[in-house]
Amino acid sequence: MNRFLLPLSIFIVVVVFLGIGLKLNPREIPSPLVGKAAPDFSQPQLFEPSKVFSPADMKGKVWLLNFWASWCSGCKTEHPVLMDLAKSGQVPIYGMDYKDQRDEAMTWLSRWGNPYPVVGVDDAGRVGINYGVYGVPETYVIDKQGVIQYKQIGPLDPETVEKKIIPLVKQLEAQ
Amino acid sequence: MNMQWITLIVVLFLSGPVWAGEARPLADDPASEARLKHLAVELRCLVCQNQTLADSNAPLAEDLRREVREMIAKNMSDQEIIEFLTARYGDFVLYRPPLKATTTLLWVGPFVLVIVGATVLMVTLRRRAGKVVDVPVTEDEHRRVEQLLAEGGKRP
């Protein structure tokens, strides 16, 4: 009996580690930007290119910054969730059109609906790099002081919105 | 062979270089190119996670190479360039992550495993060596061995 105890316990430890490894998503790289000031930018707006969109305009508000593109399939999946959240009026969602064609982005929004009050254009992907974006969609929760409090990698789903985003937004608004 | 065929062949030969297209240099001057190459093999592409920034063709890798190229042009040190990237993407971009509280298991783990394995091996070998006991060979057995050896030569 004793002979098998050691190999069995080693086996169990290995299985536990493999189990944890299977559950981790290698695409979700923890962002070093959570807890830091949201990088500044000043980008032309999608619908009014003469105007700029900057996070400085959002000081004093809790808001979401959503990186998306018309070529991105995950953004289509996420889109109804954003529409619902925007309609609920619980938090404003600002868009950043990432490495996209302006006309295609506008067509996409007019076809599927526009959840954003303002959309910035990041055609060269530089704002994306400053925010550590490596695959759209990505969404940032930014607080009243302009600090990033949460980063969602990949599409938002109703459960994440319900359980993470909304409670966090409420808590940040109470501050 | 008629004239049309000859013309076609000549045209095909001449147009070769047009469709071939040249490999784009990483940077304009060789020194910056060498620096970019040296840096890019140490950095991981975040899209194709098992490729370096130098190998990857992902659009993000292209953008990051452009950023690194610009930083080289601004005469920033390797240290500063790596800090720029880790501030945005974390230690994950480095193929050689620094020794930190979160990465100790990564750095120490293999050595711990080797030490544990070697200890187990040593203990097992010692224990096994203790189990081997000398058994004297009896007269009878000696006789049997002699007999078997003598018979052995006669076998076909």
Give the gist of this structure.
Chain A has 175 residues and is an alpha/beta fold. Chain A has five helices and seven strands; from the N terminus they run H-E-E-E-H-E-H-E-H-E-E-H. Among the domains of chain B are: 26-98, Cytochrome C biogenesis protein (Helicase, Ruva Protein, domain 3), CATH 1.10.8; 99-132.
Can you tell me about this structure?
The complex is a heterodimer of chains A (175) and B (156). Chain A has 175 residues and is of the alpha/beta class. Chain A has a single domain, classed as 3-Layer(aba) Sandwich (Glutaredoxin). Helices cover 41% and strands 18% of the residues of chain A. Chain A is built from 5 helices and 7 strands, in the order H-E-E-E-H-E-H-E-H-E-E-H. The radius of gyration of chain A is 20 Å and the shape is elongated. The termini of chain A are far apart. Chain B has 156 residues and is mainly alpha-helical. Among the domains of chain B are: 73 residues, Cytochrome C biogenesis protein (Helicase, Ruva Protein, domain 3, Orthogonal Bundle), CATH 1.10.8.640; 34 residues. Chain B has 6 helices and no strands. In chain B, helix 2 crosses helix 3. The longest helix of chain B is centred in the C-terminal third of the chain and has 28 residues. The termini of chain B are far apart. At the A-B interface, helix 4 of A face helix 3 and helix 4 of B.
